[in-house]
Structure formats: C-alpha cells, structure tokens
Design brief:
Blueprint lengths: L14 H5 L8 H17 L6 H14 L6
Length: 70
C-alpha cells in the first residue's frame, strides 16, 4: 500500500524553490515604522494583557526563519 499521501500535513512542494520567486526584501526604515505601528495596535487590542504569548510566537517564528529564509 502506497502511503505517500496518507498524511494531510505532508508538504508536496519545495518551499524554498517556490518562495524564491517572491520579493520579500524589507527596508529597515519601513520595518521600524511597522514595528511602532504594531506596538500601538497591540496596546489597544484585547490581547494587550497577553503579550507573553505573542513574544513566544515571535521567538518561535524567529527560530524557524533560519529553516525557511524567505
């Protein structure tokens, strides 16, 4: 029995090859502005008392960024 497609979460394409066609280049000035805006929005959000969860998510995302550079 072929089990190649037995799991729904199985990746069926090369993500590095696929995403290299997109231009995700970021500019420092724009990133700083977006970071400030994100902080403003978080302070006004219902999640403002749960910042630790957001920090944990961002840390995990940062750690995974080395695996998928794009």
């Amino acid at each position: 029995m072929d089990t190649a497609f037995a799991f729904v979460n199985r990746l069926r394409f090369n993500e590095s090859e696929t995403y290299r066609h997109f231009d995700f280049a970021a500019h420092q000035k724009r990133n700083r502005r977006r970071t400030r805006r994100g902080i403003e929005l978080l302070k006004k959000s219902p999640y403002k008392d749960h910042v630790e969860t957001a920090q944990l998510f961002l840390q995990i995302l940062h750690n995974r960024s080395k695996d998928i550079p794009t």
